[in-house]
Amino acid sequence: MSLVTLLPFIVLIGAMFLMTRSAKKKQQAAAQMRDDMQPGTGVRTIGGMYATVKEIQEDTVLLEVAPGVHAVYAKNSIGAVLDDAEYNRIVHGDDELEGDDTVVPDDASSLTTGGSPDDVAKIDLGKKAEDDDAPKETGAKSAEAKDAKADGEGDAK
After folding, report:
1. Within a 10 A sphere around the Cβ of 2, how many other Cβ atoms?
2. CA nearest 72: which of 41, 45, 109, 108?
3. What is the rounded average pLDDT of the residues 73-98?
4. Three-state secondary structure along 70-115?
């Protein structure tokens, strides 16, 4: 067998090795994070719930979901251990932006260029009455046209 024939197999085995290695590193980092948890730290579960750690057992964690409300979770359900500043910002709404000078507006007004929103021409999307648009007809012709339209025969061809 030549090296050209074995090359695809070697590349495939190398790719599999690299993928399993990175997955193992992620698992080890998650396990280390869970082991570093201390009572009193803020956490986010994999379901997206924010809580404070009260007690840590071998496989379970007692979380305080709200003041006086406790729940038991598996250690594997902890998605992230948050530092105090981030936990307080998310849970308590503390708006201290430390070192982050970027302010994101909560509306799209900064995307428009020039003038204020009042300068934009107003467009009337209301339906106008038919009498305003059409020229006024008088006499017998208008009565016949109205009767024909009422019967559904007026504009049919």
Report:
1. 6
2. 45
3. 82
4. EEEEEHHHEEEEECHHHHHHHHCCCCCCCCCCCCCCCCCHHHCCCC
